[in-house]
Amino acid sequence: MSSQDKRPTEREASPAGSAGAAPKSVAARALRILDTFDSDHYELSLSDISRRSGLPVATCHRLVRELVEWGGLLRTGGRYRIGHKLWSLGLLSESHHGLAELAAPYMHDVLFLTKHVVNLFVLDGAHALLLERISGSQPGPALHRVGDRLALHASAGGKAFLAYGPPELARAALANPQRLTPHTVIDPTRLRRELEQVRRKGYAMTLEEAVEGAHGIAVPVTAVGGGVIAALGVVTVGTRPRPAGIVPVLQIAARSIAREAGRLAA
How many domains does the chain have? Predict the structure, then answer.
């Protein structure tokens, strides 16, 4: 039976927060719109939002447009989903730390299978924040510490965010990229081509762009709703990594992390 044939369930007609009198403040109406999204309804049309929130279509249209401009919602065609701004704010909660904990076992798997240092990044404004790092007994210097913030345009994790994140994130990062090493790519046109390749191949790769002698490969950790909640990658020093033996391992681990993160948020 198609979604068009389904009769609206009680949850679809009256989601949490929609019962009772219509909210009077703009903030309350905006929150009611955001409350229409959940794990079962992660992508909605404007009419869906109006029906589930109990607000007029005209009101929803105005507030949804403002939420898109702010980054709270992301528009894809004629449908909407939760945007990067709310993901970023959510990372400030205790679940931010929970993400590192639930990712750790899968990061250890990546370390065991690839023998490379494993990094987990989250988006922190205009940077990639190193949330967790697992190196085991791998030799070599610690190039970055947990809590370090890396440039999006010069790190593998950062390029994963730029490739799969909202367009405005990439526009801001590519407006004035800074050279960190002689190998840092700073030409916006070339960077845009690289991001297209990342989306096509499914992974990002950097060669001595953030630190001389260091190379990285990263893949996005994508939530059920399509938003990128993290980037998982490995870093090598001196030896250029081989994507064929690393990317599938990272992608399997990333899917497992996303699945566990979805259960944590449920």
Answer: 2
